Amino acid sequence: MTGHQLVGTTLRHRTAAAVADERLRANVARAVDRFAGHRLTGLAELDHEPAAPGEPGGADGLRRAARAVKQQVLADLPDLLERFADRVLARGGHVCWASTAADARRYIVDVVEAAGATRVAKSKSMATEEIDLNPALEAAGKEVVETDLGEWIIQLAGETPSHIIAPALHRDRHQIRDLFVDTVAAPPGLGTEPAELVRFARGRLREVFLAADVGITGANIAVADTGSIVLVTNEGNGRLVTALPRVHVAVLGMERLAADWAQTDLLLALLARSATGQRLSSYTSVVTGARAAGEADGPDELHVVILDNGRSDLLGGEHHEMLGCIRCGACLNVCPVYRQTGGHAYGWVYPGPMGAVLTPLLAGKEHPEAAEVAGASTLCGACMDACPVQIPLQDLLLSLRRARAADAGRAERAAWRAWAAAWSDARRYGATTRAATWGRWAAGLAGHLPAGRGWATGRTMPRPAAERFRDRWRAGS
Amino acid sequence: MTGRETGDRQGFLAPARRRLAGGIATNPVHPPPSGPAPGAPVPLPGYRNLDPDDPVATFAVALSQVDGTCHVVEAGPDGALPDELVGRLVAELGDRSAVVSDEPAARAVGRQLAARGVAVHDATVEDAARAGLGVTGAVAAIAATGSIVLDSRAAGGRSASLLPAVHLCVVSVNSLRETPADVLRGLGSEPDALPPSLVLVTGPSRTGDIEQLLTLGAHGPTALHVVLVNGGQ
Fold first, then answer.
1. What pTM does this model have?
2. Judged by CB atoms within 8 Å, which residues 232-261 of A form the interface with B?
3. What is the span of the domain harbouring residue B89?
4. CB-CB contact of A386 with A325 (8 Å)
């Protein structure tokens, strides 16, 4: 996999690098404060009569209902996927069952080849980030352009998204202006006003939309009853990518289902408000099949790639509820750790609390280093409070840490056992508290703690008092 | 007409079925709510900004809050819009062309524009990409969110509402619904009636990707005018 940093760096190194970057932290803090404020305003407008006394009303009641809806969907997932696929097929769409990232990449490259296409326009999709689709297409000689503005910016910078809703939020206007000049030959006179930068990007990307042969999107929700894909965007890139190219490929995480339109209505009421505070995003597109006779535009072919890539392993188990995630980004915006580090410290494509859960679970098989990402949390619980489907994120993080501790090295366990044995005996306890031995003993223990000597780095070893309490007690002073 | 299936469906679903057959672990710290009984209705989100006695006013406010403009007009002969409104649009358009969708409401505006000397075309991709104004109808409007609902089958495509810098949408007040649920919850009853593209448009195209500052006209229209027509059909 490219672009991610799980291999060759540690969480500690990535975090230290992020925290040392004052500009990055200022950019991230400004962004998450705006998002989090808008979310509260947006949710306050939703109304709900509690179904029974003692149950919450308003947005909290709807979040509770959404959690129940997601539970129903996941319990019934295989049948819903079959119903969805049958509806897509009946409407003339093609369906690919991709158990692995490699299955999905191979199918999509084949579709692009079969279409005789060279130019691919993409709308923002975390699932395609997860399966490293762009490098696979580029290796096949295809030109791939991200069309979401933030996603285009990080593509030009050779980075991964630092936020699932605003991929380039770690960069400010000056950095973006310089990037445009350096990478896509923007005129040196280009200013730094956001409106001017957006106008430049609009012009460049409009050419991409008009020239692209294949459009690739993700899917916010797939509706089983009608075989529809719901795409939510603000810029309109989702609409353009599904209107102009001859072929549309949608990559759908297998858990992103809703049974029907009543469930979809509830999830949409919460999705945009939780992400940006909007009542609805500018464009909520419902795609059902390829273009119809008599339409002047729209794709001739629709392909839906249904992706497992480790998701089914979560079903039924301790981390089952993580599959309810609707990718709104609310948990990132309230997380005290994300606020300090931004997204790249998490090392893979999903950052923040949802990423700290998903990264070990989805990337952990291939990269055991991913397990430590569950440590990037204070367990404060702000994430669950913000989650529109009330995923108990802190409980999932704790369970991942517990699993990791159970796997911890034998040396660490032996060190703690020696400490316990020493301090449970008065004479040996006395021996360890003598100043001469204290430093050696403590350093030895720290050396056996997780991540090499990482635990001791950044922590100050307490200095023993000049005279021990036991000695003063005996002396009667 | 039926699509092609690639990969082994039952092989793909087998791990999921196997795991679910073993039961579902319940989070002991924050157990999920018991939830509605199977078949019970999904709760309806209520919208505190909705005035059920005046959905037109709710719509106009909601649309202005997302930087769109609402015009409420009386139906003219043959679906004509007030001269004053058309005159303003023509003045803003300058010498650029306009495209119109297949909907009768859009065609009527097209005739008015042509009468004032504007070059008016069908909304092919090529013509829409060059046009300064795209005119469409809508199958519904939604008061609580200030949205319009565009149907690609009714419009004959997607480009008229997407490529020009300004989008003008003409919709009858009779098509105004209170909430998204009034539109969305009916979609499942006739799956074959769903068009290839149904879009809820809520304001002009926007981005916040540069410092989370709102900028209009990222990829789609920079301005959105919705004309709610009283009376008529």
1. 0.92
2. 234-237, 239-240, 242-244, 254, 260-261
3. 55-186+197-206+214-230
4. no
